[in-house]
Design goal:
Number of helices: 8
Shape: elongated
Strand content: 15-25%
CATH class of the largest domain: Alpha Beta
Oligomer: single chain
Radius of gyration: 21 Å
Number of domains: 2
CATH topology of the largest domain: Glutamine Phosphoribosylpyrophosphate, subunit 1, domain 1
CATH superfamily of the largest domain: Aminohydrolase, N-terminal nucleophile (Ntn) domain
Helix content: 25-40%
């Protein structure tokens, strides 16, 4: 029994879809969330039917609306009264279902761009916090909004059995490492006393290494800054007559290569990290 609260959501402007989830269950990220870029996202929980994930995405891929997907999934499932599922489709329409045999408190709600649900919760306030936080954070980055939803839900009572694991999944076309994957964020805390706090910590590292600073905020590397970079890189053992070569070598060691594009301009995050060394 995956006693869980989750939010399935999207940011249509950024063309991102994702799921955030917390549970008193080992490795909840391996069971609950699924998402596909420019298709939608699904969360299956309670007495979870894991086939809902591939089947739900297939239906979304075929153009079914979120409500239609939910009806199709539970309609053919003899265990439907023990299931809970949330879906958001390509147009941001949300749908949620809670079977009559899910353990109290259990329920869900939907709004523009999201579906929030939970079971074995302290009260309805947990799901209300998911929804309210998502709506009030409009305009922010989707991963950060989803993390804020988990924090608010936990503060509102959370899972009445306690906490153990949490996960964050966000997809965007070409949003993954090297642009060769659509998985922009896929972070999991499988077993931890404070899983949401740990998930936030890991996300901060992920954002440092793989986040994107707007092009207009990058700094031009003039002569003075170039000389500084060469000095700092040489002091760290990355001396090379070509600044671009030295910078790339250091960035690769530090896992910052996604934030380096030659040496004519520099991401301020990279500059800060180099100066901090």
């Amino acid at each position: 029994m995956i006693s869980t609260y989750s939010i399935v959501a999207c940011d249509l402007e950024a063309q991102e879809w994702g799921v955030a989830v917390q549970s008193k269950f080992l490795a909840v990220g391996s069971a609950v969330p699924a998402a596909e870029a420019e298709v939608g996202a699904v969360a299956t929980q309670a007495w979870a039917n894991l086939s809902y994930r591939p089947r739900g995405l297939e239906l979304l891929r075929d153009g079914y609306a979120a409500e239609e997907v939910v009806r199709a999934l539970v309609g053919s499932d003899e265990g439907r009264e023990h299931r809970q599922v949330g879906v958001v489709d390509v147009h941001g329409r949300g749908a949620t279902y809670t079977g009559s045999e899910c353990l109290d408190w259990a329920g869900g709600t939907v709004g523009p761009g999201y579906a929030a649900q939970g079971n074995i919760l302290v009260s309805a306030a947990t799901v209300e916090a998911l929804a309210t936080t998502f709506e009030r954070s409009a305009g922010g980055p989707l991963p950060e909004r989803l993390l804020a939803c988990l924090v608010a839900a936990e503060s509102a009572g959370g899972d009445r059995r306690g906490r153990q694991s949490a996960a964050l999944l966000v997809v965007r076309r070409g949003g993954g490492y090297g642009g060769e994957s659509d998985v922009a964020v896929d972070l999991r805390v499988d077993d931890h006393a404070q899983p949401i706090e740990e998930l936030e910590r890991i996300y901060r590292i992920h954002d440092l290494l793989f986040g994107q600073t707007p092009d207009e905020e990058w700094l031009v590397v003039d002569q003075a800054l170039g000389d500084e970079l060469q000095r700092r890189l040489a002091a760290l053992g990355y001396e090379h007559p070509e600044l671009a070569e030295a910078l790339a070598a250091w960035a690769g060691t530090e896992n910052l290569e996604e934030r380096v594009k030659g040496a004519d301009r520099i991401d301020p995050v990279v500059l800060e990290q180099l100066r901090s060394r």
